[in-house]
Design a protein that fits this description.
alpha/beta, Enolase-like, domain 1, 12 strands, metal ion binding, metal-binding, Enolase-like_C_sf, menaquinone biosynthesis
Length: about 325
């Protein structure tokens, strides 16, 4: 890998978000050019599995993505922990029929207000799921899920209500709403070795932390659960990997949480190539578009300390691979 790619020339970008998403106000990362194309290396600040992120970033430019079995993917709009009015606005403008609503940041009253607003924004026939990102203990989760299920008229599922697999299993035995597992997979040292049958009904996968579309596809096969693909707030280049995974899954029973490009104030590719949801779908492409020079210049990181921080992270990933 190191002989095929000039990592020293990898540009570092920083794109502001239009509002805080998962605590982020700026999304940073690096773009990696391989012999066949570009990939994105953008592990979040707390991420430790840097080699997986590097494998994901080099995949499209070297071995390529797996062959798709579908040409487009249904999208669930992600609703961050914003106020109810903003949540309704995002849902209504999305063009999606499904929304994944972040919960557990404030109190339950705020969560209930937010999901009511999203339900109104989606309109008749809208489908809601909630993502707690492991913020609850089992008793809190059981009570919150019951309340959210009542308010929405029936949740599609709830993702990662508690931080551990054992706690997820406890919750799953006590609620009627399907339970999805996300962080427990992406943060595992051995994602393919996890036994999730008692803990979850659905697996939520992200390509960056799992080592790319091909490796994530193997995780999907090993877990034996229906899968949803989610994003980590990537640019269009990074989102392409998630769509490649969603396009290659043998079965896709749920809309995927890949409609996040709109939370960034810009992109590294031309507007005509930017992945913006249309009528609730995004296309699957054989490889991501190349970045556009003027966009790279606009969003280039110039602070020496920040550049050094990213290059040190990349070097750690290379050394460990």
């Amino acid at each position: 890998m190191q002989t095929l790619i000039d990592f020293d020339r990898a540009p570092v970008f920083a794109i502001p978000t239009i509002e805080p998403v998962g605590g982020l106000t700026v999304r940073e990362g690096m773009l990696i050019e391989g012999p066949q194309g570009w990939g994105e290396f953008s592990p979040l600040p707390h991420e430790g599995a840097l080699t997986r992120w590097l494998t994901s970033a080099t995949e499209p430019g070297t071995v390529g993505w797996p062959d798709p079995v579908r040409g487009r993917v249904p999208i669930a709009i992600t609703i961050p922990a914003v106020d109810a009015a903003r949540a309704r606005e995002i849902a209504a403008a999305s063009g999606c029929r499904t929304a994944a609503v972040e919960v557990g940041v404030g109190g339950l009253a705020e969560d209930l207000e937010r999901v009511r607003a999203v339900r109104d924004g989606l309109g008749a026939g809208g489908v809601l799921r909630c993502d707690a990102k492991g913020r609850w203990d089992p008793d809190t989760a059981v009570a919150a899920i019951a309340a959210l299920d009542r308010v929405t008229g029936g949740l599609e599922f709830v993702t990662q209500p508690c931080p551990t697999v054992d706690e997820l299993a406890q919750v799953r035995r006590r609620v009627d709403v399907p339970v999805a597992v996300g962080e427990s997979i992406r943060e595992s040292d051995d994602p393919m070795g996890l036994r999730l049958g008692e803990a979850a009904d659905i697996a939520v996968l992200a390509t960056g932390p799992l080592g790319g579309a091909r490796r994530a596809l193997r995780v999907a096969e090993s877990c034996g659960l229906p899968c949803v693909v989610t994003s980590t707030l990537e640019t269009t280049i990074g989102l392409g990997a998630g769509l490649a995974l969603a396009g290659a899954l043998p079965e896709l029973a749920f809309a995927c949480e890949l409609g996040t490009r709109g939370f960034l104030a810009g992109d590294v590719v031309a507007d005509s190539r930017s992945l913006v949801t249309v009528d609730g779908y995004l296309p699957v492409a054989p490889m991501p578009p190349a970045p556009q020079l003027d966009r790279l210049e606009r969003y280039a990181v110039t602070d020496p300390a920040r550049l050094a921080w990213w290059r040190e992270r990349l070097q750690r990933a290379i050394s460990a691979s």
